[in-house]
Amino acid sequence: MFKNLLKKSDKKEQPIKTETAAPESRPTEADDQQSEDWSSGYEGQLAIDVYQTPDNIVIKSTIAGVLPEDISVTVDNDMVTIKGERKSTQEVKKDNYYYQECYWGSFSRSVILPVDIEADKIEAELKNGILTVKLPKAKKSRTTKIEVRAA
Questions:
Q1: Which of 8, 79, 112, 138 has its CA 20 to 30 A from that of 90?
Q2: DSSP reduced 3-state for 79
Q3: How many domains does the chain have?
Q4: Domain CATH code at residue 132
Q5: Cα separation of 127 and 68, whole Å?
C-alpha cells in the first residue's frame, strides 16, 4: 500500500569512497512518471478495528489529517462503507523525498455487518484523528410463534 522512493535497506553496504563505486542513483523524471501512472486511480485501503458491545457494532480507524467533511460513511443492506481523502497541504518534488510512506489520496473500506442494525440510528465521530462509527444492533426478535390450525 505504501511506497518507498528510496529504500536504504535494499542497498548493499558501500565503501565511503572508491574509484570504482558508481554514483548513487536517484529517482529520475521517468521514474516519477512511472510511479504516477501506477498510483493514478489507486485507492488506499483503510485499516480498521471492528468489535461489538452488547448494544452496538463499533468500527474504529485512525484517520489523521482528514477533515470530517472529507469522510463519507454509507450503509447499504448489510454493508458499511467508509470513504475519504487525505489531502497533502504542501507540494514537495519527488526528488526531494528520502522516504515517502504516508498515504495521500482517496481511501475506502467496506465491512459486511455480522448482525442486523438500525441504520437510522448510526453515529459517526472524528476525535483526535480517530474515527468511531457506532452501529446500533437491531432489537427485533427473529423468533416467531406460528399458530397451528385444525384442518
A1: 8
A2: strand
A3: 1
A4: 2.60.40.790
A5: 9
For residue 149, is it within any domain? Answer: no
CB burial of 98-115 (b: ≥16 within 10 Å; e: otherwise) equals eebeebeeebebebebee
Asked if residue 22 is part of any domain, the answer here is: no
pTM: 0.63
SS3 for 90-112 is: CCCCHHHCCCCCCCCEEEEEEEE
* Spatial separation of the C-alpha atoms in residues 113 and 117, rounded to whole Å: 8
Domain that residue 125 falls in: 1-6+44-139
- DSSP letter at 35 equals H
Instruction: Give me the helices (H) in 17-100, please.
Output: 29-39
pLDDT tens per residue across span 92-151: 888 888 988 877 889 999 999 999 999 899 999 999 999 999 999 998 766 677 889 888
* Phi (first) and psi of residue 143, to 5 degrees: -90, 125
Decide if 111 contacts 49 (C-beta within 8 A): no
Question: Is 23 a domain residue?
Answer: no
* Helix/strand/coil for 75: strand
Inside any domain, residue 96: yes
